[in-house]
Amino acid sequence: MLNHTELQLLTDAHVFDDMTDKQIKIYTAAIEVFAEKGYLNASTKEIAAKADVAEGNIFSKFTNKRGLLNAIIEPVAKSIFPETLSSFTDSEPIPKDLSLHEFVDSLVKDRMDFLEDNQDVLKIFISEMVYDDQVRQQYLSKFPDAYWHTINDNLNLLKATHKMVNWDNWEIMQIMWSLIGGMVISFIFFHIQPTDKAVNHAVAALVKALNPRL
Amino acid sequence: MLNHTELQLLTDAHVFDDMTDKQIKIYTAAIEVFAEKGYLNASTKEIAAKADVAEGNIFSKFTNKRGLLNAIIEPVAKSIFPETLSSFTDSEPIPKDLSLHEFVDSLVKDRMDFLEDNQDVLKIFISEMVYDDQVRQQYLSKFPDAYWHTINDNLNLLKATHKMVNWDNWEIMQIMWSLIGGMVISFIFFHIQPTDKAVNHAVAALVKALNPRL
Amino acid sequence: MLNHTELQLLTDAHVFDDMTDKQIKIYTAAIEVFAEKGYLNASTKEIAAKADVAEGNIFSKFTNKRGLLNAIIEPVAKSIFPETLSSFTDSEPIPKDLSLHEFVDSLVKDRMDFLEDNQDVLKIFISEMVYDDQVRQQYLSKFPDAYWHTINDNLNLLKATHKMVNWDNWEIMQIMWSLIGGMVISFIFFHIQPTDKAVNHAVAALVKALNPRL
Amino acid sequence: MLNHTELQLLTDAHVFDDMTDKQIKIYTAAIEVFAEKGYLNASTKEIAAKADVAEGNIFSKFTNKRGLLNAIIEPVAKSIFPETLSSFTDSEPIPKDLSLHEFVDSLVKDRMDFLEDNQDVLKIFISEMVYDDQVRQQYLSKFPDAYWHTINDNLNLLKATHKMVNWDNWEIMQIMWSLIGGMVISFIFFHIQPTDKAVNHAVAALVKALNPRL
DNA sequence: CATGAATGAGATTTCATTCAT
DNA sequence: GATGAATGAAATCTCATTCAT
Predict the structure, then answer these.
(1) Residue A66 at interface with chain B, using a CB cutoff of 8 Å
(2) CATH node for B4-210
(3) pTM reported for the whole predicted model
(4) What pLDDT score was predicted for residue B90?
(5) Which single residue of A126, A199, B182, B210 has CA 20 to 30 Å from A21?
């Protein structure tokens, strides 16, 4: 069973909004089965059984097994990067005096929360990104535009105010996301819970790594 | 086709030693197909066709489709971590006055070379680690003993001589391997070649991140 | 095609109760093919063809080729021994003054009727008992308890009233079942119909053989 | 491994006479494997392995897997019935004053000895007779001529001297062979050793059953 | 709409037999 | 002759998808 938080988040994202009860049952059952066995090893029969629904429903509601996968992946794909810094952009604009530590700390911890709340779906997303070139292409094309803008602004601001090392934004991003990704993968695939201490050390490491004065 | 370097490495590892010509053709064809489509999406029929060999041949040497996968994965799994610091331990022992920069630089660049030479097989290995819990268990159990010892010694030495921050070795390793992994994944799955500049920045980032005096 | 009587018996045993039309067609086709070629020489493809059904159907109902065999064998296995003397025990209890001739005659003729009605399935059952150790173990363990009790009572009664030779019940049973088995095998495998005269002589032989006064 | 007696008998029957060492190794290995797994479940690879011989030898020496089976079955098929009463016919002619008990006793015990000495080969023979219609036809046609003559003479003699019931010879034979067969099958397939007592009771049963004066 | 029986393409695997060495 | 790698037909089984009821 998906935990309450995970379901709540899906609800918040209005994923369920125009789904019937059966669709929701199929959808949540699929998340569990895909996460446990992987997309390719999961059978529509098993999903239908877990959803307590006739197999045919999957196809009338999601067209395809692949359509079901997409319905699951799409919301995560959208929120994995885009929402990242929304905390800064939407409600309150980026503060001019943003410190490097604040920036890194909020980014890392926000994503740790996201991880905690979306384990299963993230696992499915990562697995398919790794396994399927089509999925890779499909979701790669979605990131840049919206996200790049926001993050570039942030990084440029930090550089301009000499709070961050003057490397390519892409390199900086890779360094930041590598550390986040390392914790995500450790957690999802090797069940190593990121402790507060470890997260703080990762933040400290990033702050030092990106400090321009060293 | 596998590039020359990759084949050379397999030859060095005596992987081909008790294989006939056709078995080698199967083996290399399988690497290509598995890397391109993923293990589950690859069919033995396609592998046999690409190897220009009768399908039955696969099974007389490798028992199973899974046996073929293992034959491919095993050599990488063994060399992905263990050999890592062999440069220090085997020929020349760890120098007492090892600097943090030397340590990080050699570790990172050695693994970048390894990546360059084993793209396809690494891709297969990573994909299966991500996709298959069994593979995860199977290879997880192999790492620790031999590897942990070497790396712990190195980290402890650096800490003792106040050249490295005094965090848990596990945390330090996760930070280092996350950065390496980030570049590996960018390269393998998104075809982003790690430029010398990017690698050097990653090394610099790590050195700063782990510097105890900040 | 299975003859009418054979199908009737299966219907009576509610074998067909939760089967669709196509599944029944598979089941009866399988009996014919297994009986003709033996389980191992029969292919699911041929069974499906004879049933005029897609091959996959076999597996959705019967799981396995072996599952199909079991579905066929089980009903015979249950009725080959257990029901044997039910004529005496169920409707009318064993008469105290049961004569040896009555006992043997009813036993033999009842089994000859059973044979007539279940040729194909008996052939399959016997063939698998002979060919497959697993089947042997599987069905051996099912006989004793229910059956032994009934038959022992009968034999003990006949011995107590000095109507039957005082040998081990097991020996007596072996002698009786050998004669029955001989006719069964002659019929099933060599197409030698047991004539009334031959059956009567067999009964006479048994009665004399087991007569205590000789 | 075949026991000594069984090998001795094959030697006596000159089965090995024009076989090379390798052929003999294949032959005896095949008997073991066929007896254990059945002809269809035995693979030529396993036989070759057990014979410690390259697989190709099987085909150069016995043409076929089937040819190997035939080479094994043929000698038993010939001796299962034909030699039966050779004790009487060859060295010493049938005594005019042959008693029913002598006749039955010698027949039954001779076959019990035969059984003891040829378990594996008999098991193979019976299994294939039951499983394969071709084998059935092939060996059925061989019995009658030689054997019928001898046995008919014996039965007719006993009938003429009023020592045996006046039933069809075929019926008498079926009764005799059923009892023998019952013990053979119990032994071979259910590992129930025929004790002296059980054999004697079977003989007694037959003598009584065929006694004309009851 | 909902159901789940039916479909059949396709996947893995086995194995007797051949034949180059 | 001896070997065992190579063959490829055939077998069992899975499963997304369709569609009659």
Answers:
(1) no
(2) 1.10.357.10
(3) 0.88
(4) 46
(5) A126
